[in-house]
Each structure stands twice: as structure tokens, then as C-alpha cells.
Design brief:
With 468 residues, the protein is of the alpha/beta class. Helix content is 40%, strand content 15%. The protein has two domains: 5-271, P-loop containing nucleotide triphosphate hydrolases (Rossmann fold, 3-Layer(aba) Sandwich), CATH 3.40.50; 288-451, no CATH class. The strands form two sheets. It has a six-stranded parallel β-sheet with strand order 3-2-4-1-5-6, with helices on both faces. Strands 8-7-12-9-10-11 form a six-stranded antiparallel β-sheet. The protein is elongated and about 95 Å long.
Length: 468
């Protein structure tokens, strides 16, 4: 499947020439090989890309924001001027997609679609989620630097690669907006040489050459027609034209030599991650107790049934509790509802809050148990300590659901063990998938800390069912 070779233009410094570079590079690359599909998109909201390439009747919707909503890029790409294809820009990406995309999303989308040629991505001057996506997906990142501060900012880009555990080898710096009239005495005769020396000294790699500051380039953006013209068509007599030709040649040769390597890497990474996730889920499934931890009935793993997942702190016991068993245990065994005659409303309210809660249990000295209700972040909402001996039957058949659970999960011989229970809303195994299970573990670590110092509550068998 053909995949795109991605060139991202990025710098955390504003006005260093990113958009000028992205748009003109697209035009030069296309001119170099008219059969090569060149696609350009911008995560910035200046609409320069749109003004420069839009064919008169082109629509502005759908746009780059739709990429992150599962729309196939092929449906977003428009034919544009100079043979360059574009995806329309979006006025406000964070408003359009209130939930920021994870850094890997664009790469995963692009690695799964049939897309040929070179994709150039223009970014905004902050390391926002869209810039991060463009960096993560890039085969080559060109960083325009025009002065010492813009060079210092490159550190953040290098850190981005380091934090993701990927090599920063795609990074290439390119001195831009260089005023060639400025001359220095000493070994570095102009700002181009000086910037390049600084960059190399800091361990960065640079592209060959630079892009000079040219009044002609400025006039191509600001003119009475309100258009944005390419240097290739309207500035051929300038030195910047030669510089862009040289730059495009380097980019094209790299594309020919290396090809869309990043997309292949991302696909391979994705496959191995999926394999690893499947393996981890399988291990969790293998640990599962086959029967309801309260009543002992078989649990059908393949059936969609509402229930509660329970796990002990050392994963000695992992399994499900049938929904009815859980409520019966709470109302009858723990709160003594039959005696107190708690109202139906309280029961319904409890069921409703249970969907958003976690429940922790831990034995205490003197035959007591501390039970806490926690919110989704593991913050304790209520906590109470009750006696378990009071309701214990002498014969096995008299054992309550609570006792069956405690005997298995929190035996007296393991006083430090903690049991956490969470309602499982999807299919039986839903909670064992990566994200819900990771949330469960986060709450677990929090609950463990809190229950280390249990509250000394007056006990005995409660007469009223109380929970906030
Ligand atoms: N080589 C050049 N010579 C002269 N002016 C240039 C050159 N390159 C860019 N400019 C001008 O500098 C200004 C900023 O350029 P550009 O918009 O490309 O930068 P940018 O990094 O994309 O900015 P932003 O961070 O705001 O998106 C524009 O007015 C542009 O016309
Ligand atoms: Mg820009």
C-alpha cells in the first residue's frame, strides 16, 4: 500500500518563514516532478495555504479538523493551483475537536490509508497537539531558524522526540530570513554561517544552504490583488528562487532515497503494540476466577452481562461478582437492610451512584471490615467500618454472600489485603481492556494509600443505610 512521505515544517518561534517554506516547497517539488502527488495542509489558521492554492470554486469544508474525526484523507484532499493538492485549513481546531488528539493519531491515520507522494504539513508556532501530531508523523522535519532565540527553541522539538523514545534524526535546521547585508568580522562572516555554526555546535543537523530575506518574497504575499504568489512563478529573478530550487532538490532526493519510512515504522509499532495489548488482556483473562466471587455460579465470559469486577491488591483473586449478588451483599449483609427496611429509593440511588463509583474493602482487627466508596479518581467519598462477625453463620450454608467473598478474597490470614470492586458496564471482559484496566489500577493505588490509615468509626451493625 503506498504511503505518504511526510515533511513537517515546524518551529516554536512565530514569523520565521514556516508557511512561506511549506507553500513554496510544495510548488517547487511539484515542478520538479509533475507526476509526483504533492499534498499540503496547514494546522495554522492564517489560511495562506488556502489563499495560495484554492481554485475558485473549492469549498472550505470539510477541513483538516475532519482528519481527526475519522474521515479518510482521500475525501478531504482538493485539487489546487500549480498542481499542488491541499486539504482546507480550519479556523479553530481546538474548538472543532474539543478533545485534543493523542500525538500518534495522525501517523496512525496516514499509515493506514492509500496515499502516494509527499505530504507537507505547515504548523503553528506552538507545540500544540496538532504540531505534535505533525512531528510524530514526519519523515523529515524542517525547522526554519532566523536568529538565536529560534535556534534555542529547537530544544523543545528535540525533547519531543526524546520523550516519545524516537530518534530525532528527522530534524533538519534551515537558516531562513537571512539578511545577507549583515556582515561580521571573524570566522563567521554572516548570520547564515553564524547560525549554522551555533546549530552544529548544539548537535543539530542542518540542510544545505539557507533562505535569504527578500523584499520580493514579501511583495508576493501583500499585493493589491490580495493573492499569495509562489516564488517559482513570480520571483524567478531572485536569489531566493535559486535557494528554494536547491532546497527542493535536497528534499526530493531524500524522498527518493529514503521513501516513506516513518509510516512503515508507525505501522510496525502499531502492530507490535496491538499484539502486546492482546497479550496483556489474555494474561488478565487467564487470572480470572471462573465463578461469581459471591454465589459461586459460573460466569460466562462471552456474554454481555452487567456485573462487578473485583481484584485484590496482589492480584491473588481477580474475578466477577454478579450484579444481583453485589447489591444483595451491600444491602443485606453489609448494611443490614432487611432489619432496617431501607427504602426502595435509597436502593435505586445506590445503584445509580454505583455506576460512577469504586468500592474498596479491607479487613480490620477485631473482626471488622472497612468499606469505602471512591469516586472515579480514587478519592474517598464515604468510608465506614463494620463488624463482620455479627452476621456470620456457623454452618457453611449459613454463610452470607459477604462471607463467601471475604473468605476467598480477604481471608483472615491476609489482613493487609485490599479488595477493589468496580462495575463493568460493557461486555464481561470490557474492564480487562487496556484503558479501563489502567483506570482501575490508578484508583487501586490511590485506595491503597487511603486505607493505610482507616478511620476509627463506631461500629456494630448499622441500623440505617447511609451513603452520600
Ligand atoms: N525569505 C523571505 N524574505 C522576506 N520575507 C519573508 C521571507 N519568508 C517569509 N517572509 C515574510 O515573513 C513573514 C512571516 O513569514 P511566514 O508567515 O512564512 O512565517 P511563519 O513562521 O509561518 O509565521 P507564523 O508563525 O505566524 O505562522 C511573512 O510576512 C512573509 O511574507
Ligand atoms: Mg505560518
Amino acid at each position: 500500500m503506498p504511503r505518504p512521505y511526510v515533511i513537517t515544517i515546524s518551529s516554536e518561534k512565530g514569523g520565521v518563514g514556516k508557511t512561506t517554506l511549506a507553500t513554496n516547497l510544495a510548488v517547487y517539488l511539484k515542478a520538479m516532478n509533475t507526476d509526483l502527488p504533492v499534498t499540503l495542509l496547514s494546522f495554522d489558521n492564517h489560511f495562506t495555504v488556502d489563499r495560495m492554492f484554492r481554485l475558485s470554486a473549492a469549498r472550505t469544508e470539510p477541513h483538516v479538523g475532519h482528519l481527526f474525526r475519522g474521515i479518510n484523507p482521500a475525501e478531504l484532499i482538493r485539487k489546487g493551483e500549480y498542481g499542488v493538492q491541499t486539504i482546507p485549513s480550519c479556523q479553530n481546531l481546538s474548538l472543532f475537536n474539543p478533545q485534543a488528539p493523542p500525538d500518534e493519531q495522525l501517523a496512525e491515520i496516514l499509515s493506514g490509508v492509500d496515499m502516494e507522494g509527499i505530504l507537507i504539513i505547515d504548523t503553528c508556532p506552538i507545540l500544540d497537539p496538532y504540531t505534535r501530531n505533525a512531528l510524530y508523523a514526519a519523515d523529515r522535519v524542517i525547522v526554519p531558524i532566523k536568529d538565536a532565540p529560534s535556534l534555542e527553541n529547537c530544544q523543545h522539538l528535540a525533547n519531543f522526540f526524546r520523550d516519545h523514545g524516537i530518534s530525532h534524526s528527522p530534524l533538519r535546521l534551515l537558516p531562513c530570513l537571512i539578511d545577507t547585508r549583515i556582515r561580521y568580522t571573524g570566522p563567521f562572516r554572516n548570520s547564515y554561517q553564524l547560525l549554522k555554526a551555533y546549530a552544529i555546535n548544539r548537535g543539530y543537523r542542518c540542510l544545505e544552504g539557507y533562505i535569504a530575506k527578500s523584499p520580493k518574497v514579501e511583495s508576493l504575499v501583500t499585493n493589491p490583488e490580495g493573492k499569495v504568489y509562489p516564488i517559482l512563478t513570480h520571483g524567478r529573478a531572485t536569489e531566493v528562487h535559486l535557494q528554494f530550487s536547491h532546497l527542493a532538490r535536497q528534499a526530493y532526493l531524500e524522498f527518493l532515497e529514503k521513501g516513506p519510512n516513518r509510516m512503515a515504522e508507525v505501522s510496525a509499532g502499531q502492530r507490535s503494540r496491538e499484539k502486546c495489548l492482546r497479550q496483556r488482556k489474555h494474561e488478565r483473562q487467564q487470572r480470572l476466577h471462573g465463578q461469581c466471587l459471591c454465589c459461586g455460579r459460573e460466569i460466562d465470559q462471552n456474554q454481555q452481562q452487567k456485573g462487578f469486577y473485583a481484584e485484590t491488591s496482589g492480584r491473588e483473586i481477580c474475578g466477577f461478582i454478579e450484579e444481583d449478588c453485589f447489591y444483595e451483599m451491600i444491602f443485606n449483609d453489609l448494611y443490614g437492610e432487611q432489619r432496617s427496611g431501607s427504602s426502595r429509593t435509597v436502593r435505586e440511588l445506590f445503584r445509580e451512584t454505583a455506576q460512577r463509583s469504586y468500592f474498596s474493602f479491607q479487613r480490620q482487627a477485631g473482626g471488622k471490615i472497612t468499606q469505602a466508596r471512591l469516586d472515579q479518581n480514587g478519592e474517598s467519598l464515604s468510608q465506614r467500618t463494620t463488624s463482620i462477625r455479627a452476621t456470620r453463620g456457623f454452618l457453611r450454608r449459613d454463610a452470607t454472600l459477604l462471607h463467601s467473598l471475604l473468605e476467598q478474597a480477604l481471608p483472615e490470614s491476609e489482613p493487609k489485603r485490599l479488595l477493589l470492586i468496580r462495575q463493568n458496564t460493557g461486555p464481561t471482559e470490557h474492564i480487562l481492556t487496556e484503558a479501563p484496566y489502567a483506570r482501575f489500577q490508578t484508583v487501586f493505588s490511590r485506595a491503597r494509600l487511603d486505607l493505610d490509615a482507616p478511620e476509627e468509626a463506631p461500629d456494630a451493625t448499622p441500623t440505617n443505610l447511609v451513603f452520600p
